Structure formats: C-alpha cells, structure tokens
Amino acid sequence: MSDATVSAPFDFRGYRVVVAGGSRGIGRSIALGFAEAGAAVSICARGATALDEARQALAAHGGLVHAQSCDLADPAAIEGYVANAAEALGGIDVLVNNASGYGFDDSDDGWLAGFNVDLMAAVRASRAALPHLQASPHGCILHTSSIAAFRPRPHGAAYAAVKAALSQYATSQALALAEHRIRVNAIAPGSILFADGLWERRRAEQPELYRATLAKIPFGRFGTPEEIAHAALFLASPWAGWITGQTLVVDGGQMLHG
Q1: Which end of the chain is more exposed for a tag (fewer CB within 10 A), N or C?
Q2: Threshold 0.90, pTM exceeds
Q3: Which residues are catalytic?
C-alpha cells in the first residue's frame, strides 16, 4: 500500500470499490489499499487538486480508477456520483462512507455540517449503491465513525453525537441488509495524524491539547491513516465474512484512558 509500512495481505482483484471522501487522509489510504490489492476504485471529494493527486496515485497501481468531484452534503450530487461510479466500474461490491463535515462547534451550522456529511451522506450513498450491492457476491458497506462516539465530551458534542448516530445506523443497516448478504460495519479511529489533517493543525495551533491527547494514548503515538486502511481491508475481505453490525475501534488503546 502506498505510504504504508505493511503491505496488505488481501486480494481484491475483481472487486469494485467506491470511497466517498477519498482524496486525502484516511479515505485516500483506504482507496490506495484497495487499489494495491487489485480492486477497481472510485473516489470522490470536493477539492479538485487533492482529488486529481489521489487519482494519479491510484492509477499508478495499474487498475481501473474513477474520480469525480462531489459535494457530499448535496443529495443530488451523491446520487449522480454513485451512478457514475457504478457505470465506470461495472458495479459496486464495497461502499466506504468516509467523509466528515467536522462539525465541532455548538452552532446550528456545526450540527448541520456533521448531520449532512457524516450521517446523511452515508445514508444517501448507501441508498444509491444498494441495487449494485444487492447484485454483488461481496456486498459490503463500511462507515468511518470515531472513538468520540463512545464517550461524553466537554467539547465537540455535535461531532460525537453524529458519529454515535452513524455507528448506530451501521447496526440497524446491518440487520436490515443481512437478508441480502450485505455486511455493514463501522470503524472508529482514534486520533490520526497526517499532513494537513486535524491533528497536524492542532500540533501547530493548540500544542497543549496535542500533547495532552498524545499522553493519553498508551502506544505513545498518534495513529496513521494506513492503520485505518488495514482495518477497512480486513472488514471488506472474506476473512471478515461473518462480521456485521460492528464498530471496530482502532486507537492504540486511547479509549482505555477514558
């Protein structure tokens, strides 16, 4: 996997994977992991420059790649993107809902940013992809949640509440789609450090918060996007064929400190 320290031990040749929110950070690493493992991959994002850079990185693995600009807060844009991705790839086997509106503040805008992107984009993309997933022998949906979903927070209540809703949605969705043999799981990352990401910015702008958070991680470091990608590839693989309705925490033990 590009940028990864461990090569993915999975074979996804013949799979068609759609990553909604796949141009940077965790989403980019997930898309790269699937591409390296042989899958055809589609990604979307709002930023054209990052999207094109990610597309080129995916194409370097030699497989089929589709990339499209999409505002995941826009229901019509989501429907159009998923339809185009399915046409370009010849179907959909795996849908990864990774986008976040990063709605941390307690204003209406903060709440709506999370609700529209973190939660409703996942609902809408799942709905649009469902006919294709039903036709797949490998149907799988993955949602990117957060460890914030599990504990009360003095700050960022909007983000935590929306991620909790997303994890709950995964359980109900898993039950509803089990009859179609479509598995649904979520991944709850801990604090992940990557270029121009939230924690890199906090290291520069809020160094005390950065150090305090680092001190609570038993492994003594922040996580990497590639480590979340490893979990995503496992959950989408036949090795996880009887796992559904779960939220897998990937946090280096960060939650052990509360």
Answers
A1: C
A2: yes
A3: 145-146, 159, 163
